[in-house]
Specification:
alpha/beta, 13 helices, 10 strands
Length: about 325
């Protein structure tokens, strides 16, 4: 039996306009199709991409399509993909991005030869003005370090907390057994951090394996109340995890605590951008609000945590004005 070297996992939800490009980029990998598989997890998308997926499926026997019976968001789709994957290594892709196929085979070979738990790769960003820029950690190509060394050296100096900029040894993911958070919008940064700090061996690959296509309508730029609320929830998960990192690396524990607090602070300070303030607080829930109230914050954030009703009343008056000012500034920048 031929070994499957690489499993690509793509969560799908209303991506009918972009999934073709994502799949097409993967199917130009310099690797025999029997050596890799593509797993598309349809997260109960209201608008399916049946025709596109059926076309690819009829042409490529290594494409597997899994349908969720309930929506679990990206974290749930990724968890499903990991459970069914058969590859030696796992990679992730978003439905609205593309991979850089010419580098994948070499990246896999380096990871497999060195039996890396994770391989950190460069990535490219395709901006809205069609410009491109490459990002990643500036370290010697081919070097390997422990997860502890990687986190302490790079967490605030180039490390990317998006799943698609790494390759993962499948057995390592199964051993660590830390699933993505489900039913949230911000599911990845704490998951990446957990795996980085627990990895025995991480390698550097100084070539771009992925292109992140900036999309102004993506959830990253969304003003939906869930986005900012789940950003705060992610910050709380980072702080929770940081306590568990103390025995591995006090340095990284402090970094994660600081980063989690910055997520929380940033979420509240951008609350005026949210489309519905009361739903934002309702989504956070009373238990989380109590945990946040027990922490020390500067005055504006402390007020927003302690007095949600007064904050909502104030923002319903001032919020629209701030949004108008922001819109006018954006128009002037474009002129």
């Amino acid at each position: 039996m031929v070994q499957i070297k690489l499993s690509y996992i793509i969560p799908f939800y209303n991506g009918q306009d972009t999934i073709y490009s994502a799949l097409n980029s993967i199917y130009t990998i310099d690797m025999e199709e029997e050596n890799f598989e593509v797993i598309v997890v349809d997260d109960k998308s209201p608008v399916p991409a049946s025709e596109i997926l059926e076309t690819f499926s009829s042409q490529h026997s290594n494409l597997r399509i899994i349908h969720h019976t309930q929506n679990k968001r990206q974290g749930g789709a990724k968890n499903t993909g990991i459970k069914v994957a058969k590859g030696e290594y796992i990679a992730f892709a978003d439905q609205d991005d593309i991979i850089n196929p010419l580098q994948i085979r070499a990246a896999y070979n380096f990871a497999s030869t060195n039996q890396l738990d994770m391989l950190s790769c460069l990535y490219s960003v395709h901006y809205e003005d069609d410009s491109m820029k490459e990002y990643g950690i500036d370290s010697p190509d081919g070097m390997t370090v422990t997860g502890k060394e990687f986190c302490e050296n790079h967490f605030f100096a180039g490390v990317n907390l998006a799943p698609w900029s790494y390759l993962y040894r499948r057995e390592f993911l199964l051993q660590v057994s830390r699933p993505f958070e489900e039913h949230v919008l911000m599911e990845d940064a704490d998951w990446i951090a957990w795996h980085l700090i627990h990895a025995n061996k991480i390698g550097y690959y100084k070539h771009s394996i992925y292109t992140w296509i900036m999309n102004p309508s993506s959830i990253t730029h969304s003003s939906h109340f869930l986005h900012k609320a789940d950003w705060i929830k992610m910050g709380c998960r980072k702080i929770r995890d940081a306590k568990l990192y103390q025995n591995i690396s006090p340095v990284f524990s402090d970094l994660m605590t600081f980063d989690g607090r910055e997520n929380i602070r940033g979420g509240f300070m951008r609350l005026w951008k949210v489309d519905c303030y009361s739903k934002f607080y309702k989504h956070l829930g009373p238990e989380l609000m109590k945990d946040l109230e027990a922490m020390e914050w500067n005055q504006p954030v402390a007020f927003m945590i302690r007095y949600p009703k007064l904050t909502c009343a104030f923002l319903y008056i001032i919020g629209p004005i701030l949004k108008i000012i922001k819109s006018i500034r954006q128009k002037f920048r474009k002129v």
